[in-house]
Amino acid sequence: MDEMLAKIRSPKDLEGMSQQDLGRLAGEIREALCRLLGKRTAHFASNLGVVELTLALHTSFDFLHDRLIWDTGHQVYPHKLITGRYQRFSTIRTRAGLMGYPNPAESDYDLFMTGHAGCGVSSGLGLKCADDLLRSGEGRHTVIVIGDGAFSSGIVLEAMNNAGGLKKKLLVVLNDNKMSICPRVGGMADYLDRLRMSPFYTGLKAEIQRLLNQVPVFGDPVERFLSQTKDAIKAGVLGGMLFEELGFRYIGPVDGHDIRHLQKYLAKVRDFDDPVLLHVVTEKGRGFPPAEEDPVKFHTPAPFARENGTLVPLKRNAATSYTRLARDAICGAMERDHRVCVITAAMCQGNMLEPVRESFPDRFFDVGICESHAVAFAAGLAKAGMRPVVDIYSTFLQRSYDQIFQEISLQNLPVVLMLDRAGLTGPDGPTHHGVFDLGYLRPFPNLAVMAPGDAADLAPMLELALSLDGPAAIRYPKSAAESLQRFPTPVSLGKAETVETGDDGLIIACGTVLADCHRAVDLLHREGLNVGLINARFVKPLDTDTLLAAIETVPFIVTVEEGMLAGGFGSAVLEAACDAGLDTTHLRRLGIPDRFVEHGDRAELLAELGLDAEGIAAACRRFAVRRETAAPPLRQTAR
User: What is the CATH number of domain 498-629?
Assistant: First the structure.
């Protein structure tokens, strides 16, 4: 097992390998990927598709000297396997193990921690310009690998436009597998499809250019006519060449699974001094038939075992997720109101929106990896009378910050933002943890910000959001949905829910930490500490009547949130108390501290941060004891 792979300590060990040896090594890499899926969920189909491309890149360049950026970092597993991390590969996506994305702390071969698509060309151009300015890049090549799904991102076109104008020596490798996570969408996808269907494009271009260059030069106006004819032939016969108009030399399409062929073209483009786009065609899921047939399902599949040629799931999670509840609530709203539509940014599968796409194709919009456009597009829909729901992961919605400000909040338009994956996302790590949303949403006037405490809150919150005349945001985590045993009070704008009362202290839960807070209350009750519990439900508008009354009367208060403490829910409570002139020395906040949280199982991370039931109960105990031993504070009751 892994006879060759186990001996690879760095890409230098690939030097001198025959094509046959490289082919065997590719097979061993794929087998290592399959073994990993026998242990845990991981990015799978995308990594199977770049095995040969990875080997070709590392046998064509020296990336300890040259620069390599993986634009969307979830396809770097083969890269990690041949850059000295084979021995630790089984730890990937586990706490204290390898990250599932590039990580400069792991290896000098990783330059950036890339989890959001589209920024690689910009970063690569910056590297190239700095190398030139500092004269540190003599003979140094800069290579960016970017997927076709990310290629329609606005920042990619901005970067290519800049690079073409600067005429910097830059190689952009377009990894075209006809997919992002789901099948790609839009005009750029159609354009790439046309290019894929032209396998002889490169040779045809060279031949026609040779013929055109033999046209004799005459005086004006014949010269102008022939020049225009050359341009017309280039535009018509050569496919329009969007990339060449941006200043890039286009090469391709090239078979991305033929290592020798790739090496040939990579050697060829090394000699060009201007920006080059090398169009590489790959197959997502290559070498594993089930993933080839259904690359969407096998993007990050559940762990499986192979038995007699069939796949057997290792575990099944039958629990309903908040993502599914949100999807069902959206479906219900679309059935009731023909004005409701939904927008996603290349995450139809991740947001479980396939039934929405099938049932309401005219009101389902997948805009690709273009979150800024998604929010501005929603503003236009809302202005014209629709009720758009923008369903995007919390961490990706950050990319549309300016549009949330100008197009949504400033205009006070009724757009609903559904922030999936809010809080800690587990093994995806710091690029994907949705812990900043409260801090970046709270400042906007007109925007209501909601956080369901449990499964019972989510659908009523969407119904309320769709009834408002202005914008609203609803955040919920990537986790199984829990339901407290209670009779929930109706969801009303800006009103919290009192779950339990207590004379000794109070926990105020923001979001789905409510379940762990409830378990903490039970632990404390058994110890004789009578602590109450409030389900905040709203971060904005804040239920100041309920919360400030509690701050005035309860011996100690602990706020709990699965988000950054800076600018979060606890900060909102402190601000409200300060504005009311109340004493807050008996108030403590629990949440994410001022640091990036690494990857790991979500339950492990919550426990590490003191945000599980035991951690919350322990914080209450410490605070209660401290309050008992300290002198009673002066209470200010004026409000």
Answer: 3.40.50.920
Delimit the domains of the chain by residue range: 5-198+244-293, 199-238, 322-475, 498-629
* Lookup result for tokens 């690029």: 431
The conformation of residue 423, written as its DSSP 8-state character, comes to B
- Tell me the CATH class for 322-475: alpha beta
Average pLDDT in the chain: 88
The pLDDT tens digits of the residues spanning 310-333 come to 666 666 666 899 999 999 999 999
* Residue 284 annotated among the catalytic residues of the structure: yes
Confidence check: pLDDT of 424 > 60: yes
Instruction: For 348-387, give one letter per residue: b (16+ CB within 10 A) or e.
Output: bbbbbbeebbeebeebbbbbbbbbbbbbbbbbebbeeebb
Select, from the ranges 263-272, 441-450, 626-635, the one with the highest average predicted confidence (pLDDT).
441-450
Spatial neighbors of 288 by CB under 8 A, at least 6 apart, are 30, 34, 44, 45, 48, 298
CA 331 to chain centre: 24
Say what percent of the chain tops pLDDT 90.
72
Whole-angstrom distance, CA of residue 558 vs CA of residue 505: 8
- Centroid of chain to Cα 492: 32
Residue 447: CB atoms within 10 A of its CB come to 20
Name the active-site residue from 128, 184, 284, 540.
284
For residue 178, indicate whether it is catalytic: no
pLDDT at 223 over 90: no
pTM for this entry = 0.85
Q: Look at the alpha carbons of 250, 253, 257, 263 in this order and tell me if their dihedral is positive or negative.
A: negative
Greater model confidence, 20 or 207: 20
Cα–Cα distance between 47 and 35 in angstroms, integer? 13
Give backbone dihedrals phi and psi of 255, rounded to 5 degrees, phi first.
-65, 115
pLDDT beyond 80 at 419:
yes
Asked if the domains 5-198+244-293 and 498-629 are classified in one and the same CATH topology, the answer is: yes
Mind giving me the DSSP string for 264-296?
A: HHHHHHTT--S-EEEEEE--TTTT-HHHHH-TT
CATH architecture of 5-198+244-293: 3-Layer(aba) Sandwich (3.40)
Q: Is 614 annotated in the active site? A: no
Catalytic residue among 399, 537, 540, 589: 399
d(CA 428, CA 566): 22
Range name among 28-32, 287-291, 542-546 with the lowest pLDDT average = 287-291
591 contacts 563 by C-beta, under 8 angstroms: yes
Q: Which residues contact 129 (CB under 8 A, 6 or more apart)?
A: 166, 168
- DSSP β-ladder status, 387-393 and 364-366: unpaired
Contacts of 421 (CB under 8 A, 6+ apart): 393, 394, 395, 432, 434, 477, 478
Q: Which residues pair with 310 in a beta bridge?
A: 307
Widest CA span of the chain, in angstroms? Answer: 100
CB atoms within 10 A of CB 18: 8
For the stretch 24-74, pLDDT in tens is: 999 999 999 988 887 887 878 888 999 999 999 999 999 999 999 999 889
Q: Identify the active-site residue in 28, 52, 283, 371.
A: 371
Distance CA(386)–CA(340), nearest Å, equals: 6
> How confident is the model over 594-620, as a mean pLDDT?
96
